[in-house]
């Protein structure tokens, strides 16, 4: 009998001891209490102006020729054009403003010496002072068509190295 009494007392003591810790707050995650310092925030993605000239997607023949077959397909050119649009669109609103184009002037200069003003005059089909992705891609497709002199759907090294004709305003 004393053994049963000892076992019962131990059981009650163990339960009491276990329940004693239940009243305290559980530590389940990071400390969320207010602090004196601001939280660490990751820096924003670099604007296109922070990207070295040879690092943007339309920097040159070798960059555009993604599959390294010695020619640039219309798909490779279009993918690079869209990627550059997204890099320039710092406001992520689907439009390129003149301020965004000016910030990207070094990258634009790699594309046949374009300036922001010249690009806007060529590509802004509705003359609203901004370029939509559709206007940008129409410009990129027109440029591809001018460079693909033999109309085979590819720009080879000889076509790329030949003097590039000026790009007429889109839609004209």
The CATH architecture assignment of the domain at 58-161 turns out to be Orthogonal Bundle
Radius of gyration: 31 Å
What does the largest sheet look like?
2 strands, antiparallel
SSE-based structural type: mainly alpha
CATH fold group of the domain at 58-161: Recoverin, domain 1
From the spread of the alpha carbons, the general shape counts as elongated
What is the CATH C level class of the domain at 58-161, in words?
A: Mainly Alpha
- What is the number of E strands? 4
- Sequence stretches where pLDDT stays below 50 over 5 or more residues: none
Strand content: 5-15%
Signal peptide: 1-20
InterPro entries: CML21-like, EF-hand-dom_pair, EF_Hand_1_Ca_BS, EF_hand_dom
Protein name: EF-hand domain-containing protein
Pfam families: EF-hand_5
Question: What is shown here, in short?
Answer:
It is built from 8 helices and 4 strands, in the order H-H-E-H-E-H-H-H-E-H-E-H. It has 172 residues and is mostly helical.
Task: Write a structural description.
This protein is mainly alpha-helical and 172 residues long. The chain has eight helices and four strands, in the order ααβαβαααβαβα. The chain has a domain of 104 residues: EF-hand (Recoverin, domain 1), CATH 1.10.238. Helices cover 45% and strands 7% of the residues. Helix 3 packs antiparallel against helix 7. The termini are far apart. 20% of the residues are buried. The mean pLDDT is 79.
Features:
single chain; Recoverin, domain 1; two-stranded antiparallel ribbon; 8 helices; 7% strand; CML21-like
């Amino acid at each position: 009998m004393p053994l049963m009494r000892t076992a019962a007392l131990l059981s009650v003591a163990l339960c009491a001891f276990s329940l004693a810790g239940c009243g305290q707050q559980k530590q389940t995650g990071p400390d969320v209490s207010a602090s004196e310092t601001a939280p660490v925030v990751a820096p924003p993605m670099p604007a296109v102006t922070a990207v070295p000239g040879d690092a943007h997607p339309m920097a040159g023949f070798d960059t555009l020729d993604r599959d390294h077959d010695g020619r640039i397909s219309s798909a490779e050119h279009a993918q690079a054009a869209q990627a550059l649009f997204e890099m320039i669109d710092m406001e992520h609103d689907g439009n390129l403003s003149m301020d965004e184009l000016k910030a990207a002037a070094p990258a634009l200069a790699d594309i046949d010496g374009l300036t922001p003003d010249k690009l806007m005059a060529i590509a802004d089909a509705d003359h609203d002072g901004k370029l939509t992705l559709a206007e940008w891609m129409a410009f990129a497709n027109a440029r591809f068509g001018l460079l693909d002199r033999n109309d085979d759907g590819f720009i080879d090294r000889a076509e790329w190295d030949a003097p590039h004709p000026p790009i007429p305003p889109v839609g004209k």
